[in-house]
Amino acid sequence: MKSLAFLLFGLLAGCATVQPSRALPTADAHRRFGLDEQVIAPWEDGLRTDSTPGTYEWWYFDAHLDDGSTLVVVFHTKPFTGTNGPLSPVVQVDLVRPDGTKVSKTVALPADQFSASKERCDVSIGKNRFEGDLHEYRIHLDTPELAGDLTLTGEVEAWRPAAGILAFGATDEKYFAWLPAVPQGHVEGALTVEGTRMELHGTGYHDHNWGNAPLTELIHDWYWGRARVGEYSVIASFITADKKFSGTQFPIFLLAKGDQVLAGDGTHVTFSSSDVTTDEVTGKPIASRLEWNYAHDGKRYRVTFLRKRDLARASMLDLLPGVTRFLARLSGFDGAYHRFTGDVTVEAFEGETLVDTQTNATAVWELMYLGHAP
């Protein structure tokens, strides 16, 4: 019951006073968290929290496979809906095949079956392991329905959007942190899925998130996506803080061509969305077209995400056990999660002249909507 009370407190907290939120300036973040302004070190992908109430952490991997399948693997210190509770490790695996069939597995294990290094990414949850060094990562999965071994080899160096820290509150006391350790890489390996072996080849991505306050308290919604588009690698996000943290909007953007970063500064990016409809299941507004425009030092790029099909949509209330769901509903929480697939197009301009355009027709992106729809 204590963890239920913690969740309800997180949903209700901070509703009276409007406070600021901001991308933490690089110098401030480096002093507070001990970062090097120029170099990303392997320890930054190691364990960054102590699992006290309010803290959470996850290591995320996804792959777009050559056969048209998508695979997502996440190692959590706590389930997304229980960040105010104690250490409760979870491994989440989702495989969507080209015909739309899905295999999903969530493994929750006792705290004594979790271990993680502070020196580098090396996380174990039971027999499952996620480890690497900012360039090469290995993931071992061992569940009754899904088992196998994957290797992700980076093709674009680890990157931080500025310092990688969004800070909330009058003294920046609350934060959400993000490190794309492998913005783009090559994936290979094999999975045995319900007794059938699959050889895996494709492109992959790995990032690491952590923080010290529930996202339900800090964030109203975010779009996030990544794609390999011909020679280009894209990470694009647009985060809107909760109204009690001033509703601040954070465009985040990385564009690389080969191993060269072309654009990685969110201060020169504008975001727009269009073709918005209300989802009949979750009641959230869904934009079918997302657009990031980058212009700086004579460079201009436009990246467009065009939704073609929904891969997942769910009310986050459905993920909660009965009593917690009841308390969350009483608090007014109605969060939802959507995942989409479609086309991503990269356009490069010289002045007003379009000099290059490339499209990927198999990209995947998401909408996390924690606040109330307008």
Structure description:
By secondary structure, this protein is mainly β. The protein has one domain (2-369): Beta Barrel (AttH-like fold). The protein contains four helices and 22 strands. The two termini are 32 Å apart.
Topology:
Blueprint (H helix, E strand, L loop, with lengths): L1 H11 L8 E3 L2 H8 L22 E10 L4 E7 L13 E7 L5 E7 L5 E3 L4 E5 L2 E5 L3 E7 L3 E11 L8 E4 L5 E20 L2 E16 L3 H4 E11 L2 E10 L7 E9 L2 E4 L5 E10 L6 E12 L2 E17 L6 H10 L4 E15 L2 E17 L5
Antiparallel strand pairs: 1-11, 2-3, 2-13, 3-4, 4-5, 6-7, 7-8, 8-9, 9-10, 10-12, 11-12, 12-13, 14-15, 14-22, 15-16, 16-17, 18-19, 19-20, 20-21, 21-22
Helix pairs in contact: 1-4
The run of helices and strands is: HEHEEEEEEEEEEEEHEEEEEEEHEE
| Architecture per CATH nomenclature, i.e. the level-2 architecture | Beta Barrel
Number of strands: 22
> In CATH terms, what is the fold-level topology?
AttH-like fold
CATH class: Mainly Beta
- CATH-wise, what's the superfamily? AttH-like domain
Structural class: mainly beta
The best one-word shape is: globular
Give average pLDDT, whole number: 89
| Number of helices in the DSSP assignment | 4
How far apart the termini lie comes to: 32 Å
Q: Give the percentage of residues in beta strands.
A: over 45%
Main beta sheet, described?
13 strands, antiparallel
In quaternary terms, these chains amount to single chain
